[in-house]
Amino acid sequence: MRKVRSGNAWLGSLFPAVGLLILGLLLSYNQGLERFDRFLYDSLSRHITRPPADNIVIIAIDEESLAKYGQWPWPRHIHGDLIDKLSVGGAKVIGFDIIISETGREGSQDDTLFSEAVARSGRVIMPVFAEWNPGRNRLQVRKPIPAVSAAAAGLGHVDFELDSDGIMRRAFLNAGLGFPEWNAFSLEMLLFAGFPASKPLPGRRNTSLDSASPGNWVRDYEILLPFTGKPGQFKRISYAQFLDPDFDPYVVRDKFVLVGTTASGLSDALPTPVSGESLPMSGVEINANLLDTLENGLAVLPISTAGRLSFTALLLIFPLVAFALFANKTVQIVAGSFLVFIPLTAALLLVKIHIWYPPAAAMLILLLSYPVWVWNRLAQLVRKLFQERDHADITLKSIGDGVITTDASCRVKYMNPAAERLTGYSRREAEGCRLETILRVAEKEEEGEPFAFVRQCIETADIVQQQEEAVFHDKSGRKHIACVTAGPLKDHAGKAMGAVLGISDVTEKNYALEKLTYQATHDFITNLPNRSLLFDRLSQAILRTRRSDKSVAILFLDLDNFKKVNDQLGHSGGDRLLQMVGVRLKKACRSGDTVARLGGDEFVVLLEEVTDLRIAATLAEKFIHILQPPFMLDDHELFLTASIGISVFPKDGTDVDMLMKNADIAMYEVKKSGRNNYLFFSDRMNELIQKRLRLEAELRNALNRAELRLYYQPQIRLSDNRVIGVEALLRWVKDDGRIIPPTLFIPVAEESGLILPLSEWVLQTACGQAKIWQEQINESLRMSINISPRHFREGNLPGQLIKVIRDTGINPENIDLEITEGLIMQDIDRSVTIMRDFKLLGGTVSIDDFGTGYSSLSYLKQFPLDKLKIDKSFIDDIDRNRKDEGLAKTIITMGHGLGLTVAAEGVETRSQLEKLRQLGCDVVQGFYYSQPLPPEALTSLLAKSQFINK
Ligand code: C2E
Ligand code: MG
Ligand code: MG
């Protein structure tokens, strides 16, 4: 990364500014731009004019005078006449600006006439000047001839300095040979007229007066001469005209009168800033201007060197520093305005305090400083560019997406590290390569150019996003899936010079998404589609089939007795079994069918485009068949069957829920009717189900509304006809007094789970009642309570018994639990444990409905039983049917053999009773003795006698 200049940057840009300032001071010091300064001065002078003083009059030796008096020089007595008339006229002072330094042509008498006039006047100032004497090879002062010099009121020098460009701008108030002994001609006139001599003279002093050599012309009190305007400003009277006898001499009263030549050819005319070379100004008029200037105190002082340098520095320092340090446009404007400000200042100085400051050096430096500003601005821009490039570089390096830039022909120019990782190529390797080389597109090659969208981006100079995810291989051949966007790299004209590709690698994301989707839609045990995917496919299938005459069938398959297997094998064994079942089911299906697992032991198969319902039936049979061979699990041979319910769209339902529910109903019917079979859903099933559901809802309410009661039926010991116990039997007494028998609602309660709270209530109520009777009637009265299979399996029977015993205070020895054969056979180990625990408390256990189940005698031996209750079906014909009698006899003998009490239920007649007595039955129960009675009725019955003799 290139190092960014920052800290000392401003110092760097200050150097050129300081350099320029020094250059400015140098230029200012040695007046290197004098020409330009003069130009400025002249331009200003031309504009800053003033009206001439009206007390100055020029007597002009003009063409008219020459015409009158003939060729120059004239006899000097004419000049004498002029001086006389001027004196008569009352002129304040007469500056006679004509050289009379040699004897005239008319001879000395003529000269005398002139010198006498001068003497008479007493107010004539005569000129002196320096002249090169080639004979003596030195300068010499030329004064008027001695008589005139003596007669003159004063002598003044008429030396005017011409600048190197030949223009007369300055005057020296004192000048002389070796020493500036002469006042300037106009100053001499002023002094004569009373101009305060005490006042210090204006002008720049000559600092080298002391070292001046005697042969040199020395000047002092330098001033710049501000002119009143172009030549011809001052009041001018023609020489000849003035001498006209008719001309009033008094026009010159109290005036400064300057006499001099103005006629072309005669005049010592000089170019001035106001007149230029084309219209030179006569010496007399220049003297008039000097006179006017001095009289009015308007002399302009050239600024001193020190002043010039300080002022230049002052004017330059602000814009230069601003230019150097700040690169914005405002600074440029502010500093640029100094270009106007500087000459304006010079003009103001000139006009207001009569000081001339030559501004050219400062102006030039200001102009030159513009490149400094530009340079500074450029440097700043470059710094910024570098900075931004560095930032962009870091950004590109740190972002996770790949960035590749190309030229207009799609060749790689740059790749960031992410793109290097993505493609497997280093930046160096990739530079100059075609995009296709480093991003080898894996698919859709046949569809033409893979990077057409990049070209499109370059052609249209617009961002183009690739519509689909691109699949390509990196250098090592690994596959990547990426989203690619191309943006144009434009030149200043907006034309695309290349493209920048943003590549976002979504391979991992896609993979994770796929995995997640798979997990969300598949069962993790069998890898079959789960409920959500099944429902999805089913609803899709319904949509597709809606407009055709075909059907959709779903086969709801529930494994029979899977819970038993699961308990036996443990969960991992159960899971493996489910996997095997899944495999077999899939094998039986077509590839287009969906075999899904809903959860537990439930599978659903979805058949689409069913034209004939027999297809579904055949498949169901195939399932039953394919499940027949035993499943081998760790040397165990396991046999499984399934119950299958089938529902069909649109016949059995038009939506997913309905179809699933009805297939479930059909499956339930199969379960009820013996399992290992299949059934199509029918409306009758539905009716039954509806009825059952209604009953379930009512039963739930019944429990809440206390519509359930317990009736009690006495149990009589045959040896002494004593009531030794009662059996609690549930009754549902409806609002209208109808009594619903338990055979109708207990199965519903079993299925819905309502049996659990119900059973708890029965336990509590029966034991509570038993306690009352024990206290009131017979303390050894036993309470037989029927235990439901589900309550036995799922409820916390031992815990509830303990609670009931504690709550009611009943002696556990008086509780008899009636359990059906089927129930204990379902889970022998658990049954034995519960029974043992209960017996430890002192209770007894009976097998109800004995003979209807398939108890193995060997098992029976293991159970800690107390009593067998022979099922009513054996009792019904006991007195008429020898077989029944035989069976009853066998049971009684066997029971007694096992040390158990044998009871008979459903005894309705005396002959049945007699038979049982004969066979040695211990206890009987039946309508012959008593119907099951509400507690109050039984209380009164028992209160009468505890013996029922019939
Ligand atoms: P179960 O335990 O075998 O009860 C004997 C059934 O035979 C009772 O029918 C009783 O009223 C009836 N019965 C008794 N003597 C005679 C007779 O001489 N002739 C005829 N025809 N019937 C007689 P119920 O009360 O309708 O009960 C039927 C079954 O409902 C019971 O059979 C029992 O399995 C179940 N059950 C009754 N109450 C409960 C209970 O609270 N909990 C549980 N889990 N099941 C109960
Ligand atoms: Mg019973
Ligand atoms: Mg029974």
Can you summarize this structure?
The chain is an alpha/beta fold and 950 residues long.
Strand content: 15-25%
Helix segment tally: 33
The first-to-last residue Cα distance is: 117 Å
Taking all Cα atoms into account, the compactness measure Rg is: 70 Å
Q: For the report, how would you describe the main beta sheet?
A: 11 strands, mixed
Mean pLDDT: 89
Heteromolecules bound: ligand C2E, magnesium ion
Q: Which class of secondary structure composition applies to the elements?
A: alpha/beta
Helix proportion of residues, in percent?
40-55%
Unreliable runs = 1-7
Number of strands: 38
Shape: rod-shaped
Oligomeric description of these chains:
single chain
Account of the 3D structure:
By secondary structure, the chain is of the alpha/beta class. Helix content is 46%, strand content 22%. The protein contains 33 helices and 38 strands. The strands form seven sheets. Strands 1, 2, 3, 4, 5, 6, 7, 8, 9, 10 and 11 form an eleven-stranded mixed sheet that branches. An eight-stranded mixed barrel has the order 30-31-33-34-35-36-37-38, surrounded by four helices. Strand 37, helix 32 (910-919) and strand 38 (923-925) form a beta-alpha-beta unit. Helix 4 (76-89) runs parallel beside helix 5 (108-121). The radius of gyration is 70 Å and the shape is rod-shaped. The site of one magnesium ion has 4 residues, from strand 35.
What order do the helices and strands come in, and which of them pair?
Layout: H1 9-29, H2 34-47, E1 56-61, H3 63-69, H4 76-89, E2 93-96, H5 108-121, E3 124-133, E4 138-142, H6 146-151, E5 154-157, E6 160-162, E7 168-177, E8 182-184, H7 185-192, E9 217-224, E10 235-238, H8 239-242, E11 256-261, E12 270-272, E13 276-281, H9 283-295, E14 301-302, H10 305-325, H11 329-353, E15 355-356, H12 360-398, E16 402-407, E17 412-415, H13 417-423, H14 427-430, H15 435-438, E18 440-441, H16 452-460, E19 464-465, E20 470-473, E21 479-490, E22 496-505, H17 507-521, H18 531-546, E23 551-559, H19 562-588, E24 594-599, E25 602-610, H20 613-626, E26 631-633, E27 636-638, E28 642-649, H21 656-672, E29 678-680, H22 683-704, E30 708-717, E31 722-733, E32 739-740, H23 742-752, H24 755-776, E33 782-786, H25 789-794, H26 797-808, E34 815-820, H27 821-826, H28 828-841, E35 844-850, H29 857-862, E36 867-870, H30 872-876, H31 882-897, E37 901-905, H32 910-919, E38 923-925, H33 935-944
Parallel strand pairs: 1-10, 1-11, 2-3, 2-11, 3-5, 5-8, 14-15, 28-29, 31-33, 33-34, 34-35, 35-36, 36-37, 37-38
Antiparallel strand pairs: 3-4, 6-7, 7-8, 7-9, 12-13, 16-17, 16-22, 18-20, 19-21, 20-21, 21-22, 23-25, 23-28, 24-25, 26-27, 30-31, 30-38, 31-32
